[in-house]
Amino acid sequence: MYLLWPLLFLHVSAQHLTLFDDRLKQPTQEGRVRLVGNLPSSGRVEVYHNRQWGTVCDDGWDLAEAQVVCRQLGFPGAISVTPGGQYGEGSGPIWLDDMKCKGSESSLSECSFKGWAITDCSHKEDAGVVCETGKNVTSDRHFFVDNSLGLSDDLGLLFDSGDGCDFIVNVQDISEEAEMKFCVHSMILMFYPKLNMTNGSRNLTVDVSHSCHPHVSPFLRYLYTRQIDVSTTSAQCLHQLAFIFGVQKLMEDVGRAFTLLIPEDSTFRTQVSMYEYGIRTGDFVLQENVLQYLSWNCEFLISSPVWSTISFHMMDALLQRSDLIVKDEAFLLEALEKWIQDKGDEISSDQQASLLNHIRFLLIPVDKLYDMQFSSSVLQSES
Prior knowledge:
Helices cover 36% and strands 18% of the residues. The protein has 14 helices and 13 strands. The strands form three sheets. Strands 3, 4, 5, 6, 7 and 8 form a six-stranded mixed β-sheet that branches. The protein has a five-stranded mixed β-sheet with strand order 1-2-12-10-11. 36% of the residues are buried.
């Protein structure tokens, strides 16, 4: 399945840390989706909003909407849509109606729609989808991180036994209210100043998705032993936990697993969201690896639906690359112009000018450049 790396929002207050990540909290977060039917890959589409599951009206329901749902659930894509309550009538609210998706959104709630629960439909019009099940995009690969530098194995046994522990780490699931408790040793956590252990608190609450819960214990054990087994499926959870606890070395090491995923998604959605995630967590190695891959595959990126979704700071970094591969500079200029037009008022004139400064106009043939100054609205506005 595609592993997506959406933006990370971290809230730290009174020893309470909250982790938001769209993909990792898929089982629990606002706006998640599920399929109700006999198979995991097909069924009635339901959306979680305001702590309640609801359905989607089939008005305007098309393959673009189905693609968003299927990818949000981790399937490669959609095969077909099923209108008219084919998978039975749901109950509760009809949350979404008159959906208008481009097909490139990361979640169904990002698409245009009337508004939550604004509808003239009945449950007889509940929409459904059939998703591709194909092969998984990535296979799970493992590598072992060892930063122990001769630390005693007894530290791992100390964590396992819990003997003498004096500090509680509460791990909660934000919307499902599932909770795990780990008794650890404050002396160990004091090595991580980001946790501010000097304030005398005896507990720490971390709100993460249910899918990350199995990885918390190995992570906490790493704090004792500096050793951990990392896989491509556990990498994001471990990376984000390392970010919360301020374990920079583990962040860097786990980032190696991310590089295995970079070539796996031909839609470029994974790579773009990984870059934004790298910005949020300050992982410069991850940013560089993603930018290098996108630079080498820039023409394919430009032709993908993801091109119009790239942020200004990512576009700015990409255009400054000396290893950017495109067929010619005029092609890049035209692609930038389309991006600017798609962004509309989101991009200021100063930002447009700064991006255009990265274009090597001297490499564009004079006759081509002459024609473009009359056909290009962006160049006209800058002249």
